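Structure tokens please, single chain.
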Amino acid sequence: MGDKSGISKKRKMEITVDDKEHYLMAIALLTAKRSPDPDMGVGACIADADGNVVGIGYNRHPYGCEGLSWDKKEKHKYVCHAELNAILNKNSVDVKGCSIYVTLLPCNECAKIIIQSRIKEVVYLNEKMKEKRHIESRDLVFNMFKAADVRYRKLEIKDKIEIILELENKYI
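Here you go.
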């Protein structure tokens, strides 16, 4: 809709090229909301070099096993991590050379899957490594990524990532 001068107004929420990484991380964050994990939902978004989304995933039990335990000590035996699900859920595009945006630094098992799928960059939001076994896993992850020449870095948020879903009158 234009104003009286005939010049159209820009939408309030336009995502620019500069915001591409925040946009992709926002998709990972929104995808994490689908996780049934009562402690921590993790989301992942795979994007090609142009920033097109080619796969998303969140942590969950395997299909058909939804009734298994989410107890903190038991769930790790069953859960499929967000990175694995994003790779398995990819559309028909190959993920070779893509970047993966994850809300949590991948574990060493997911690092192997990322490397084997030929993803070349890992951008994570949080490192949440407190327990000794997690710190050891982080070191393994970084060592594998370095050896395989996979770039990795924590995304520095400029201000905040805010997801506001508003329906304009034309959609309702």
